[in-house]
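S1.2 Input.
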Amino acid sequence: MKYHIITFGCQMNEADSSLMAALLEAAGWEACARRDEADLVVVNTCSVREKPEHKVDSLLGELRKGRDEHAGRLVAVTGCMAQREGEELARRGRGVDIVLGTRSFHHLAEAVERARGGERPVVMLGMEEDPSPARCAMTPGKSVLKAFVPIILGCTNFCSYCIVPYVRGGEKSRPAEEIRGEVESLVSRGAREVTLLGQNVLAYGRDLDSGGAFADLLGDLSEVEGLWRIRYTTCHPRDVRRELIEVMRDQPQVCEHIHLPIQAGTDKLLGEMNRGYTVEQYRRVVDELRAGVPGMAITTDMMVGFPGETADDFESSLRLYETIRFDAAFMFAYSPRPGTKAAQREDQVPRNVRLERLHRLIEVQNRITVERNREEIGNVVEVLVEGPAEKGEGLLVGRGSNNKLVVFRGSGELAGRLGSVRLTEAHLWGFRGEALQA
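S1.3 Output.
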């Protein structure tokens, strides 16, 4: 029996899909590259914005139409959209056989067997469950150079625009020893870089009796022999502490990059978003990070068109971003999410205004990104070589510790190794360079 997994959304979803693949293969299933060849199609969904949900709706329609060509094929929907819509996904006649919520995906193999036995739809949405023991036991066994390791589930910040706390539940940290065991297992199979995941990794440990903090976890994982790099995402600006800056400065394995969503550039909007910090507090955190960690790269999330955002608010945000000068940003227009406070407001910004502001923001930030990259031309950086570049004969691709992409000419034997590269050209996507050694 063959399965095919389609993943929408964040890196946490990618990690969940990887675990579901391992669970299915342990149950005797085999992965296939084409969904039309699969006996089971798993759609791991995202609800952060409307667009990925629309894509899922379209995909489910295509899968339903294709059932005549593949009799008996099962369709499972997992993740945030599954948690949000629940049984409604199956009731709307979309040919969905299995619905698993954000803390039930580790029951996938069991749900598949129940559906094959005639029980349809199989719906599991329990938010009280903890899938982390299954995650630790079923760490994907394939050799990988880079791996995702979730360390904390859920979120309790309740930003007024965000659906995540409603579909991912409250914060629940994994025990530090369990995380270290998973990292050691990954390293034993070839992983040299791990990315620690959470809706807010900086909240790690607050719910544990041990009282462990995120900086302590970074220090502990830095001692894992054979682990070259530690990354993490994402972070709430309110929770950046001196201890984090110190461990980034002192531990060479902890990369000089932080993703620090700002979302808006005025105190008015930040307050209405329930972000928990002011513009000045955010700027102070950025200054401390850049002063404390040489070569620090700061990326962010920026939203335009939040309800009540005026033209003056938008211009003020642009001026702030020009001053902070982020290395890169994920930029998007506000998308109303059912059940959130912002979606209930009557002062919604018209869609055409949101899109016009988004286009202006993209132009500004893309220019800043290229300008900041040009400042690094001539620098020599250590790159973890990931393998051949997508385009260009004889070109390799890797990332510096600051998470910026570097393409350079070299032998395929360098894949999986660390090498020194001099940066020679700056682009929006990263750099071209020349290898010095490996």
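S1.4 Remarks. The longest strand covers residues 380-388.
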